[in-house]
């Protein structure tokens, strides 16, 4: 490399380091090449860390994984040399990288690291950015009250410091929150306000983002031509700023052409957006692109592609839902830990003040004792003795206070563990509801939408297939709702236990009759060997639910031409009702967690029948209400025996 070119690269690198905080991602000529050149010639760790930071931010749009690798190297150096301000800047940027990947969990951890920083004076701007970024996460999780709260904190700090760039970010974010709340008029005012600030400071990619958001508002307000113009301006600015991947604008173009009925142009733009979402690993962008692709293909009568993109939609939203619940737990833990640190800090402060006051009192005693020695040894001894008692008493109080503080600290930690366990159980149950209800209803909505839009074009055979799929999804949803209703009533104590003398054989007869179709399809024989004169004291509705779930499970996991026996016997003032089958059996590892709600135990049957994973849990709840118990024995490929044991 000649001396002139080397000088050019070095000068450009120093200018880059000087203006990196103001660039916000703008691609200057030769920027990445200059940074790589400077990295080869930099000798100090701290200098290399700053170059890694600049490289990470330069790659944040086109190569997120590369940006993350550079960031991890830089953060290790900053922590090694205790460069807190630089670490805070990088934590905010790392959080944005993880947020764009859909990993809200790790993103929040990085933003809260900034809030917990000991360098709060020098990092005031970074704390404001952290508030802004946390608000953005809450907005994406549709927690709008929290989103407004953190956005206001960011607005106050940016206004106080005079940071116009940061203020524009937060005003734009507040517009996004109002847009998600469907207050498009307020959102449009805020987007225009953010745009005016960005034009004033010449923040080009910020201007592009503002024009895109304005276009989205126009589209929702049924002004498609105005929306198209805003998308075009945004795209033009992005191109001039050097960005290659502005997928959301392509989605905007796709929506516009779909509205006009120009499906060829719509597909071209939406496919471009979907490809960009895969390259950037951006699930939110992919979900939107797949949704509109499904609608366009359905309009065209291409049901194969419509169903393909509907499947992608369901997979992405299912993944985002699981992340949402994980992120909700993490957010609770982060907030709780943040409050815990404050409480522990206050406790330490109280303890230190108590020790200081004790030392101060001791000094007073010593001074007083020396003065008393001048006047009289006797008076000194008396006063010293009395003050010694006082110090001992204070010391005892201090020890009691310390023990009390330690006890409170332990209690807080125990409550923390209990809260985490309760949250985990609750969120696991909610995730079951969200996951299992969403799939059948997505199927019903998607398939019925295709049927409604295209029924006149479709052949009878295709219509029958769609109706059969809709019927299967509806039956599955109804079965799940039945179990969820009974389970929730049992958990909240709203099911009243009303025992009476019942002949159990007739309940079994009803259930066998109800399942006759399944028996005929799988050629399974059920033997009801319960005697007619056997009477037990039980709630007839609960007992019917218990027997129905267990017999249905036996049918589900028994292969064709299998057998099921239902027997009873009395042992030591207890009645045993036993359901035994020749099914596939249960593995040992699943037997151990069969009644644990935190473990999912739904398994397809021998004919791929679907279940909810709540049936046996519900049975156990109802058996316990009868002061009874359940025993399960099973052997793989030989069968399962479930015993319901009730007091006589």
Written account of the structure:
The chain is of the alpha+beta class. The chain folds into 4 domains: 1-122, Serine Threonine Protein Phosphatase 5, Tetratricopeptide repeat (Alpha Horseshoe), CATH 1.25.40.10; 150-241, Tetratricopeptide repeat domain (Serine Threonine Protein Phosphatase 5, Tetratricopeptide repeat), CATH 1.25.40; 350-492, no CATH class; 500-647, Heat Shock Protein 90. It has 23 helices and 7 strands. Helix 2 (31-41) runs antiparallel to helix 3, helix 8 packs antiparallel against helix 9 (164-180) and helix 10 runs antiparallel to helix 11 (204-220). The termini are far apart. The relative contact order is 0.04.
Short synopsis of the structure:
The protein has 4 domains: 1-122, Alpha Horseshoe (Serine Threonine Protein Phosphatase 5, Tetratricopeptide repeat); 150-241, Alpha Horseshoe (Serine Threonine Protein Phosphatase 5, Tetratricopeptide repeat), CATH 1.25.40; 350-492, no CATH class; 500-647, Histidine kinase-like ATPase, C-terminal domain (Heat Shock Protein 90).
What is the radius of gyration computed over CA atoms, rounded to a whole number of angstroms? 34 Å
Distance between the termini: 96 Å
Pattern of helices and strands:
HHHHHHHHHHHHHHHHHHEHHEEHEEHHEE
Largest sheet: 5 strands, mixed
Q: How is the CATH topology of the largest domain named?
A: Heat Shock Protein 90
Q: What is the top-level CATH class of the largest domain?
A: Alpha Beta
The tally of structural domains comes to 4
User: How many beta-strand runs?
Assistant: 7
């Amino acid at each position: 490399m000649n001396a002139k070119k080397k000088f050019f690269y070095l000068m450009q690198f120093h200018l880059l380091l000087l203006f990196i905080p103001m660039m916000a991602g703008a691609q200057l000529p030769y920027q990445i090449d200059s940074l790589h050149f400077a990295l080869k010639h930099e000798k100090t760790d701290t200098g290399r860390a700053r170059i890694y930071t600049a490289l990470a931010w330069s790659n944040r749009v086109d190569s997120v994984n590369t940006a993350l690798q550079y960031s991890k190297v830089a953060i290790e150096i900053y922590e090694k040399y205790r460069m807190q301000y630089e670490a805070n800047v990088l934590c905010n940027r790392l959080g944005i990288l993880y947020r764009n990947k859909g990993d809200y969990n790790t993103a929040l951890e990085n933003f809260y690291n900034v809030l917990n920083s000991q360098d709060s004076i020098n990092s005031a701007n970074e704390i404001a950015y952290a508030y802004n970024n946390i608000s953005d996460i809450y907005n994406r999780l549709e927690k709008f009250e929290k989103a407004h709260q953190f956005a206001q904190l960011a607005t106050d700090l940016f206004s106080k410091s005079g940071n116009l760039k940061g203020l524009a970010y937060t005003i734009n974010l507040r517009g996004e929150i109002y847009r998600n709340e469907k207050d498009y008029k307020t959102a449009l005012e805020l987007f225009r306000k953010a745009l005016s600030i960005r034009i004033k400071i010449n923040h080009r990619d910020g201007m592009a983002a503002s024009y895109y958001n304005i276009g989205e508002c126009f589209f929702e307000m049924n002004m498609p031509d105005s929306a198209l113009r805003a998308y075009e301006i945004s795209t033009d600015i992005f191109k001039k700023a050097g960005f290659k991947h502005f997928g959301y604008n392509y989605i905007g173009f796709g929506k516009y052409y779909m509205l006009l009925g120009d499906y060829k142009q719509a597909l071209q733009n939406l496919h471009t957006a979907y490809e960009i979402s895969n390259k950037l690993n951006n699930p939110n962008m992919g979900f939107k692109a797949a949704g509109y692709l499904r609608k366009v293909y359905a309009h065209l009568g291409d049901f194969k592609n419509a169903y393909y993109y509907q499947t992608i939609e369901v997979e992405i939203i299912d993944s985002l839902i699981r992340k949402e619940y994980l992120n909700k737990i993490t957010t609770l833990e982060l907030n709780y830990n943040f409050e815990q640190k404050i409480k522990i800090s206050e406790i330490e402060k109280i303890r230190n003040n108590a020790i200081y006051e004790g030392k101060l009192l001791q000094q007073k005693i010593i001074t007083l004792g020396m003065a008393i020695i001048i006047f009289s040894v006797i008076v000194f001894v008396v006063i010293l003795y009395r003050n010694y008692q006082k110090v001992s008493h204070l010391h005892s109080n201090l020890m009691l206070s310390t023990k009390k503080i330690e006890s409170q600290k332990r209690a807080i930690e125990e409550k923390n563990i209990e809260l985490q366990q309760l949250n985990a159980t609750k969120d696991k149950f909610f995730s079951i509801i969200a996951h299992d209800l969403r799939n059948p209803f997505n199927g019903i909505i998607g398939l019925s939408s295709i049927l409604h839009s295209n029924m006149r074009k479709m052949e009878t055979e295709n219509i029958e297939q769609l109706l059969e799929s809709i019927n299967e999804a509806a039956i599955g949803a109804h079965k799940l709702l039945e179990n969820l209703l009974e389970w929730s009533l049992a958990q909240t104590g709203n099911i009243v236990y009303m025992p009476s003398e019942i002949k159990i054989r007739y309940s079994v007869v009803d259930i066998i009759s109800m399942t006759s179709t399944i028996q005929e399809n799988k050629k399974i024989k059920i033997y009801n060997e319960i005697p007619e004169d056997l009477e037990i004291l039980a709630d007839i509705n609960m007992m019917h639910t218990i027997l129905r779930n267990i017999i249905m499970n036996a049918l589900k996991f028994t292969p064709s031409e299998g057998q099921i026996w239902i027997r009873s016997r009395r042992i030591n003032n207890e009645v045993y009702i036993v359901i035994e089958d020749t099914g596939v059996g249960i593995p040992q590892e699943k037997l151990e967690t069969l009644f644990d709600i935190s473990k999912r135990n739904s398994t397809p049957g021998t004919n791929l029948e679907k279940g909810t994973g709540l049936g046996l849990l519900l049975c156990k709840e109802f058996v316990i209400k009868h002061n009874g118990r359940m025993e399960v024995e099973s052997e793989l490929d030989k069968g399962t025996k479930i015993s319901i044991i009730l007091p006589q």
